[in-house]
Design brief:
By secondary structure, this protein is an alpha/beta fold. The protein has 2 domains: 4-115 and 269-276, Quinolinate phosphoribosyl transferase, N-terminal domain (Aldehyde Oxidoreductase, domain 3); 120-266, TIM Barrel (Alpha-Beta Barrel). It is built from 11 helices and 12 strands. The chain has helices at 4-19, 25-30, 52-62, 91-121, 140-149, 167-173, 176-186, 200-206, 221-231, 248-252, 263-266, and strands at 36-43, 47-48, 67-70, 77-78, 83-90, 128-130, 163-165, 193-197, 213-217, 236-240, 258-260, 273-276. Helix 1 (4-19) crosses helix 3, helix 3 (52-62) runs antiparallel to helix 4 and helix 4 (91-121) packs across helix 5. The longest helix is centred in the middle third of the chain and has 31 residues, at 91-121.
Length: 277
């Protein structure tokens, strides 16, 4: 579960963005200050809930006395029409926070739902579905949390928690060996090192170096199988590139340990959710 200190600044900034300079001029013109109402947060489509506590915090920020009742919490699967939660609060708070809350809930639930679909496709294999740093600026911690709720796992959170030597690093360094040697000379003993390779020839060279994970980039399943056989358990294998619902099973059956999917956090469709007063 996310700590409120992690997500409250994000929700506060989203509300401030929506309120602008003059506040909710529509709601404030129509709704009496003392009016109280109950709203139902409902699923419009099948999916997995993620970010509910984040979304509901938007209502509580505008009305600290809001009463929240969760019917289907984070990680729950819901059918169309299901009540996810109910909120009783000042009517102005409900209407003003509605879009911020639904934006966050729909976005994060969409990521969890897409992750769930990929995870189901690779059941029975050793492969784990992992996300990447291709996240919405400012929302990374929330989007990566949504991936976990969908049954996936997280790749590194940022540039500082693991080393990933990519093709451009290799080009600048003048080769895989000098890139790895410089990294190993600079980092602490607790830091994992991953290196991206595009060919089996590069992989053969990499196997002579002190590396923890190999990123097998844009390789087809037969090539991935050969790569996994070459590695033979000496490092973690991660496949990346051209991963879809229709291709992920074949990729997983190659024997790789991880399958990284960028579109989970940059292109997953929102889950359709609504607020009914």
């Amino acid at each position: 579960m996310l700590h409120p200190l992690t997500y409250e600044p994000i929700v506060r900034a989203a509300l401030a963005e929506d309120l602008g300079r003059a506040g909710d001029i529509t709601t404030d013109s129509i709704v009496p200050v003392d009016a109280v109402a109950t709203a139902r947060v409902a699923a419009r489509k099948d999916g997995r809930v993620a970010g509910l506590e984040v979304a509901l915090s938007a209502f509580r920020m505008l009305d600290p006395a809001a009463e929240l009742r969760v019917e289907h919490g984070d990680g729950a699967d819901v059918a169309p029409g299901a009540t996810i939660a109910t909120v009783t609060a000042r009517a102005r708070a409900l209407l003003t926070a509605e879009r911020t809350a639904l934006n966050l809930l729909g976005r994060l639930s969409g990521i969890a739902t897409a992750t769930r679909a990929l995870v189901r496709e690779v059941e029975g294999t050793r492969a784990r579905i992992v996300c990447t740093r291709k996240t919405t600026p400012g929302l990374r911690v929330l989007e990566k949390h949504a991936v976990r709720l969908g049954g996936g796992f997280n790749h590194r959170f940022g540039l500082d928690d693991a080393v990933l030597v990519k093709d451009n690093h290799i080009a600048v360094a003048g080769g895989i060996r000098p890139a790895v040697e410089r990294v190993r000379a600079a980092i602490g003993h607790m830091v994992k090192v991953e290196v991206e390779v595009d060919t089996l020839a590069q992989l053969e060279e990499l196997l002579t170096l002190p590396v923890d994970v190999v990123l097998l980039d844009n390789m087809d399943p037969p090539t991935l199988r050969r790569a996994v056989a070459m590695v033979d358990g000496r490092m973690v294998t991660e496949a990346s590139g051209n991963v879809t619902l229709s291709t992920v099973r074949a990729i997983a059956e190659s024997g790789v340990d991880m399958i990284s999917v960028g579109w989970l956090t940059h292109s997953a469709p929102n889950l359709d959710v609504g607020l009914d007063m």
